[in-house]
Amino acid sequence: MVPSLNAIKIEIDNLIATLHPLLPLVNSHMVDYFTNSVYNTSVPSTLQNDIYNIGCENAINILLKGAHNSCAFHLNDFINRTKASRLYNLRDVCLNQSDLNKKFLEWGCNDVSSLKLKVFVTEKKSHEIELLTKVIATIYNISKTTHIIDVGGGKGYLSSLLALHHHIPVLGVDSSLVHTDGAIKRVRLLEKAWKCVEHNPYKSLPSKKDYTLTKIDHLYKQVTEFVTESTDFEQLISDIFLEKSTNFGLVGLHTCGDLAATCIKVFNKNNNLRTLCNVSCCYHLLNEEFESNNSNLNNSFGFPLSAYLKNKQFKLGRTALMLSSQSVDRMLYRKELPNKLLFYRSVLEILLEKNNVCKTKRQVGKIRRKCDNFVEYVRMSLGNIDIKLDLSNDELIKLYGDYEVYESQLYVFYLLRCMLAPLIEAIILLDRLLFLHENGHTTAFLTQLFDPIISPRCYALIALKL
């Protein structure tokens, strides 16, 4: 059930082969939709022909709602290929929940309890920590580690449940003092309510008269530290817990950008780190080694990690990394088109281009107030970037009218790009898995832990040194 090194390479090659002819689509910018004619220059002609023949509204129904149209062979094929490239469909390299349970049973552990916390957390966070704490506790029992280090521990949602429910010693490490202080305050509140919460986790927040203090300050401790490849975790445990450990695990829930790659590298080279369980996020913050515009002065890169892709000098590019964080499963579940502001922004770019507004001054940012029409949007946007253009409302209305006919086509383009996001994510995560296998960690595997509709970054990379 754990994938072989060759199987991982084969899947990476397949993904790259699927992605390569679509790179112009991946690397295009929505804001340039009209100014650079990106639909005509980046959408393959076979797809353009299908969309022209069936119309944009029908294309949207196929892409967003799964409608079938026998006159759209190439579009149907595109959807099927991108769907097959989602990591949870690559069963040779990604374990599902059943596979994961069988693997844990094979390693001698299957009786770890879980707890769904309903207080002090959002529904999304409740879903994540319920599933992840059970997996971490199972790995902890299998490996007989003494401590768990929660990297990027934030407000301590994961760490506090590991300590309170599973009685595991946890060191929460975060680079933000604000997060560390927040974790301390939150765990104190949870300690007071724990007895009520543990016996009835679905109950609403208990009243203060029901509070019974459950101290875990001997189990859960926090430290503010910026984690690098040279971080001495043994010394941190010794300094904070006042005890030595040569057998501990590293976990992270939504470790951001290069931090996930750093955790993987540290696990690889530190013999005392016996387990790894990492759920990553924010791929757009990765530093790519072979990206020509990379300004990383530390010579430490988050992608690629594997020698296989390093030898190819493989890169995805900043735009592709931005795209990889899109939530396709959530988009398809809701069956919703993007906010109309996306179309407004593309039309606004025409205006900025015609008036020779410097590109560095075109960062409109978020529009805080609701816009009822294009004219309001333009006025607010120009105010955001402190640009004055002598344009009447009638001129703006005419500009909008000239391009309104292309609105549905823009949404088709948006959906086509979004369909490629899981493919890019799969390449990033399989590169990390391959790195571990290249370095002899043959127990390493990827698994889908979370419901991607609830928590889009749903994959965990797990490795044990048995």
From TrEMBL:
Domain Methyltransferase: 124-288
Alphabetized Pfam families for the sequence: Methyltransf_32 (PF13679)
Protein name (record): Methyltransferase domain-containing protein
Organism of derivation: Pyrocoelia pectoralis
Source species taxonomy: Eukaryota, Metazoa, Ecdysozoa, Arthropoda, Hexapoda
